From TrEMBL, chains A, E:
PROSITE patterns: ABC_TRANSPORTER_1 (PS00211), ABC_TRANSPORTER_2 (PS50893). Residues 5-233 form the ABC transporter domain. It comes from Peribacillus muralis. CDD domains: ABC_NrtD_SsuB_transporters. GO terms for molecular function: ATP binding; ATP hydrolysis activity. Keywords: ATP-binding, Nucleotide-binding, Translocase, Transport. The keyword Transferase does not apply. InterPro entries: AAA+_ATPase, ABC_transporter-like_ATP-bd, ABC_transporter-like_CS, ABC_transporter_ATP-bind, P-loop_NTPase. This is Sulfonate ABC transporter ATP-binding protein. The keyword Translocase applies.
Automatic annotation (TrEMBL), chains C, D:
Belongs to the binding-protein-dependent transport system permease family. Keywords: Cell membrane, Membrane, Transmembrane, Transmembrane helix, Transport. It is found in: Cell membrane. One of its GO terms (biological process) is alkanesulfonate transmembrane transport. It is a multi-pass membrane protein. It comes from the Bacteria. It comes from Peribacillus muralis. GO terms for cellular component: plasma membrane. The chain crosses the membrane at residues 29-46, 83-107, 119-139, 146-165, 199-220, 241-263. Residues 80-260 form the ABC transmembrane type-1 domain. This is ABC transporter permease.
Length: 255, 307, 276, 276, 255
């Protein structure tokens, strides 16, 4: 199935009691089937909001978002989502949080859940409840939960934010492998420029107040990538520059 | 319960507070209240009335036991229960013989013509009430017991509903229920041989009567005055009751004219009451039987009218 | 897009939202009254056709007549007034105590151990069965009526407060401890706001419980009040008036519900919760 | 530290914790019975001293005697048995419907708009006033009693379920939508578990409400049952028996509370909430 | 006041229904008054747990923790805590979340709250409720909340995890400034080695299963530090090595 993603002139306004805030302004981009895109931008610029629109969790926006051939009309398990907060169900233990509405009695599911638990290094914690997990462990459960469903489009909102360098690299590599194997279309939000360079075909740099796309940088390096290569370093400073462009002169834009 | 502190009988100082309780919305006390008949007698004695109203006997008895009621009147069921429980009150007078206050009514289809026909039939009654006592006595008069019928324990409203929807073949009940149903053509009353009486009584709290016998006497005089007025002016009395109870005046009139109030105990009534006591004791509602005659304190009525 | 057109567009949106909101409220009011209306119409029809015995069921038109009569004669006002005063006083007293003791028991393990079992036992004692105690202790004046109503209002608020406090997220409690909230601040600035959804449900239940206890309270030597009116009409087979009373009770339920919903909308707007 | 000594130490700890737990339970049981005991002793003393009139207040010893008599004669067993069956059936029916309709109304805005206003109105109608309708529709057999009790059990569960669902975190709901939970899965695997603290409180209230409705239900043509026993004893001022009844009701309250607490301890152990 | 921190042979075991898990094993370290210490270690190794013990939120452990002169007996506002999750009160808006139990009517508090709101770049969001904030914005509110109270010891659990590079650097610098001005004793948990090198006097490297201290690396570089200096790079690879020491050979230790 085609899982191209087209975002056409998307704007999003949050309406409060009195005022309305323009959070995303006229976004325009295309993510090809099987492409790996990362979004990078200042805190509060609307990255999570954008992912929610793509996921179909919020349909109240201007413009159109097309996944495959059809405009988004609601959530679907073809579009997986790893939320910024882990959002585990507190009444389910780790393995049940991962399996969710899929039955662990199904041997195939069972096996895949077990594999994913090994992948995110949580062996031994299958029966533990979320309140007994550390921040990073919860995040890893959420990752496993999304991966289990093999979505065609995977939306990842800072999935590795709470992880140590090694677990992080390990999971980045695992993600790349899954991407290459399944041809999943990936949209990943991150604050880590290295991460975005290491993983993606395309880095979308966003700007804040109102959230909009500042630049789309294609990353044409071959996989696997080396973080120390020269082209890597060059791209890094390029993106750093893009991000740094404006200082705090627009503090009062929104209000 | 502030009556005891008014102990100094020298009427001038503080007025004695007298708590008179209305038991339902019928009875001469209502007339006395409406027409202010107590004003004269009581102001002479320096007494001040505080009125209260109870829908039925049991809560009234509870209030009396906690010294909150001084003077009132009770139906036969509550009266017997109260005496049996040795509640602190004295029977000071009758209210009426109760010859026409209770009946067994049946559906109009004519299937039940006499008491014997009740055998095996479904009969509604509120357990422990005057209607219950009446039913037992009526059955007994024909050699039957409650085991011969299908007895259903229902409060009046519920019984009304059940009777109207023909779930009950018969219903032992009191006024205004039975007359109301007969008036509306929903029911006929069953004839019972002999006369089954359900006499009510005026009562006074023992402690109060000891301290203020003169007020008790005055109460009885006023009660009689109101009763006599009701007998003499049935239409006006009906108006008063109709206003209170929101029943049609002619129905009320039928109720109050079917039997005159009478505060002097009659032999028949005492006998009937004794039978009720024995009946209740035999079904276990009261622990043991007692002599009703001994419970009547005629001294107040004597003092009030025979001096 | 220039700023001015944008502002215009936004204004238009706002106006439309306002309209939208109003039409939504109207719609939900219409939907809400559908069922009662259907029942009323069926009732009237069956009543007029003589299928429902008037003796038992009265009929909407008869009830309205009875209601108008009661209002005309001023009786309704006097019943309502005294009942409202009793219910409100009882609710205020019982609700306050319920909240207070709920908070104490919710915050202190020890008071829970001492008090909660007894309260749980008292909770199920039928009020009807303990009126003698009230008469004995408090007479049959207004005091005992108000206390009885207070008792009815106490339990819902107590239970909801207690449970609400015990469901407060420990993570937030730890934050308050770190900031050295005093015990009072913990209660007023953490526990009660966090338990507010439950407490408001408690208020709703307590309001209607207070109202329902009127029926029992006004058995105690009352000569006015909606509860008394019902009881009295019952013993004289005034079905119309009984139904007038029932309808007043039903309306009270609806009003208390709307009141608390209004409170909820204002006090809980911070919630990010599921909204069908 | 070698592994074996460590294990030993751990074992010791476990044993100590077990003991600790038991002594804690014992302690809280003692504390819980303090207040009732104090009341009982005061009551007996005042009763024996003649300060409390026995006609109104009986006394613990008289009540125990009455209780033993009732048990000996087998009356108690028969009252209790029938009442238990009625209450449980009514609770099962009303509780089930309360949960069901609560879920439907909680999940669907439309059904909320249609049903909730009517239910809120019915909620405050005093049961005592509508028993004639029950007799009319369902007769005076067990059916109408069970239905009346079911009505009493319905409202608490309905209200708590409804509110519980509406307090579910929208963030978790979004997760379920992303995973394409079916409507049924949303209900059984998300909403109900998340609303469980509230639903369990609803169960607790419904259990005791069912039990309390016995007093009214057993006015409808009953000749056995605890409610009947109380009513009957009341009309003949058999205070001892009234109190036996009251105490049975109180115990039922305590038992239903303990039962639900037990459930809570097992079903809500995932909660990380404030525990005094 | 002395705010030295002594951690003496601290062990912590979590007890479940059946099993008990040793999470911290025999921790031993001292943090001097006014010192800046960072803790770094794999996800789930017990960093957050350790901070909670120091804060006095959990007194059920073996060994002793002494702050100043006295053993920890409970929480105190002298020991501020920025939690790993932001833990804002959902019913309070941003400024009230920051002020907490301090009155905003007090002009001094008002001014300091406003200053902190500017510092964390949330001007214009004073009246906004937590549900309307982005992940990074919530984290910044939590930082402002802790800073308002000027604690003598500040415990920070991955405070900058959800922030973009620029906001992050900005807040790191602000934190350094506050540290130098107030002589606050800082204990910061992070996964970012650069962050720990940039900020602290001492890096505590932890290991997992059971959580224990693997090494304490003093960082004797002068402030302000340059992330590109040679000694910085050397220390980075040193710590990286320390962290990388053991691969997944201990997977089954715990259970
Ligand atoms: N429910 C809401 N109501 C009102 N405003 C909102 C809501 N959700 C988000 N916002 C606003 O939208 C903007 C963008 O939020 P979003 O969560 O998309 O940011 P983000 O780019 O993900 O930031 P971060 O990197 O900090 O997570 C913020 O200014 C936020 O205040
Ligand atoms: N309440 C609890 N009950 C049982 N185990 C717990 C509890 N809290 C934490 N743990 C366990 O303690 C260990 C350490 O948790 P902690 O939160 O301290 O990790 P951490 O070092 O902060 O990890 P991260 O970097 O992922 O936040 C984990 O294995 C976790 O499962
Ligand atoms: Mg975000
Ligand atoms: Mg942590």
């Amino acid at each position: 199935m085609e899982s191209t993603l087209e975002i056409n002139h998307v704007s999003k306004t949050f309406k409060n009691d009195q005022e309305s805030i323009l959070v995303l302004k006229d976004l325009y981009m295309t993510v090809n089937n099987g492409e790996f895109v990362t979004i990078i931008g200042p805190s509060g610029c609307g990255k999570s909001t954008l992912l929610k629109l793509i996921a179909g969790l919020d349909l109240d926006f201007d413009g159109t978002i097309i996944v495959g051939k059809n405009p988004v009309s609601g959530p679907s398990k073809n579009r997986g989502f790893i939320f910024q907060e882990h959002r585990l169900f507190p009444w389910l233990n780790v393995e049940k949080n991962i399996s969710g509405n899929l039955s662990l009695k199904n041997p195939e599911i069972r096996k895949r859940v077990d594999d994913l638990i090994s992948l995110v290094k949580l062996k031994g914690f299958e029966r533990v409840y979320p309140r007994q997990l550390s921040g990073g462990m919860s995040q890893r459960v959420a990752i496993a939960r999304a991966l289990l469903r093999n979505p065609e489009v995977l939306l990842l909102d800072e999935p590795f934010g709470a992880l140590d360098a090694f677990t992080r690299t390990h999971l980045q590599e695992a993600l790349l492998e899954i991407w290459e194997r399944n041809k999943t279309t990936m949209v990943l939000v991150t604050h880590d420029i290295d991460e975005s360079l290491f993983l993606s075909n395309k880095v979308v740099v966003m700007d804040a107040k109102p959230g909009r796309i500042k630049a789309i940088v294609p990353i044409d390096l071959p996989y696997p990538r080396s973080r120390t290569s020269k082209s890597f370093q060059e791209l890094r400073s390029h993106i750093l520059n893009l991000l740094d462009h404006h200082p705090q002169d627009k503090e009062d834009w929104c209000f | 319960g502030c009556n005891s502190d008014a102990g100094k009988a020298s009427g001038e100082s503080e007025p004695v507070k007298v708590s008179i309780a209305l038991n339902g919305k019928m009875g001469p006390l209502v007339i006395a209240k409406e027409k202010g008949l107590f004003d004269d007698e009581f102001s002479k004695l320096g007494a001040k009335i505080s009125w209260s109203e109870f829908p039925s006997g049991p809560p009234l008895l509870e209030s009396l036991a906690s010294n909150r009621v001084d003077l009132s009147f009770l139906g036969d069921g509550a009266l017997i229960a109260g005496i049996d429980k040795k509640l602190p009150f004295e029977v000071i007078a009758q209210t009426g013989q109760g010859g026409s206050s209770v009946r067994i009514i049946t559906q109009t289809d004519g299937k039940i013509k006499k008491v014997e026909d009740l055998k095996g039939k479904t009969v509604g009654v509120a357990s422990g009430t005057t209607g219950h006592v009446y039913l037992i006595k009526a059955l007994k008069a024909y050699g039957l017991t409650t085991d011969d019928i299908k007895l259903i324990n229902l409060q009046p409203d519920d019984a009304q509903s059940a009777f109207e929807t023909k779930q009950l073949d018969a219903w032992a009940t009191w006024n205004p229920y039975y007359l109301n149903n007969i008036e509306k053509g929903n029911a006929v009353a069953l004839n019972v041989k002999g006369k089954i009486l359900a006499p009510g009584a005026n009562i006074a709290r023992t402690g109060f009567a000891k301290e203020h016998p003169e007020i008790v006497e005055a109460y009885l005089r006023v009660y009689k005055k109101a009763a006599d007025w009701q007998i003499d002016h049935p239409d006006e009395a009906s108006e008063i009751y109709a206003k209170e109870t929101k029943m049609p005046a002619d129905t009320v009139k039928k109720i109050i004219t079917s039997e005159e109030p009478n505060i002097f105990f009659t032999e028949d009534a005492i006998k009937a009451q004794q039978e009720s006591i024995d009946t209740l004791a035999s079904v276990g509602y009261i622990k043991k039987s007692f002599d009703f005659q001994k419970e009547i304190h005629n001294e107040y009525i004597d003092a009030a009218f025979n001096k | 897009m220039s700023t001015s057109t944008q502002t215009m567009a936004q204004n238009k949106q706002l106006v439309m939202r306002e309209k939208n909101k109003q039409s939504k409220i109207a719609k939900s009011a219409v939907r809400g009254s559908t069922l009662p209306l259907v029942v009323l119409i069926a009732w009237q029809t069956l009543g007029s056709a003589g299928i429902l015995p008037a003796q038992l069921f009265s009929s909407p038109s008869l009830i309205v007549t009875a209601f108008i009569d009661l209002v005309r004669s001023g009786e309704m006002a006097s019943h309502l007034q005294i009942s409202l005063i009793r219910a409100l006083l009882g609710f205020a007293l019982g609700g306050f105590l319920g909240l207070l003791i709920g908070v104490i028991v919710g915050m202190q393990k020890k008071s829970e151990e001492y008090l909660n079992p007894s309260i749980q036992m008292l909770r199920t004692v039928p009020l009807l069965a303990i009126t003698p105690l009230f008469i004995m202790w408090f007479g049959f004046g207004e005091l005992s009526k108000v206390l009885l109503i207070a008792l009815g209002a106490f339990f819902p608020l107590y239970l909801q407060t207690f449970l609400g406090l015990r469901n407060v997220d420990k993570k937030l409690y730890d934050v308050a401890r770190i900031m050295e909230y005093s015990r009072l601040e913990q209660i007023t600035k953490l526990m009660i706001p966090a338990a507010l959804p439950n407490i408001l449900l408690g208020v709703r239940l307590a309001l209607s419980s207070a109202w329902m206890c009127l029926v029992v309270a006004e058995l105690l030597g009352a000569d006015r009040g909606v509860g008394f009116m019902i009881q009295d009409a019952r013993s004289f087979m005034q079905t119309d008036i009984v139904f007038v009373g029932i309808i007043i009770f039903a309306l009270a339920g609806k009003i208390s519900d709307s009141l608390v919903r209004f409170l909820e909308n204002h006090l809980l707007k911070w919630q990010d919760s599921f909204k069908a």
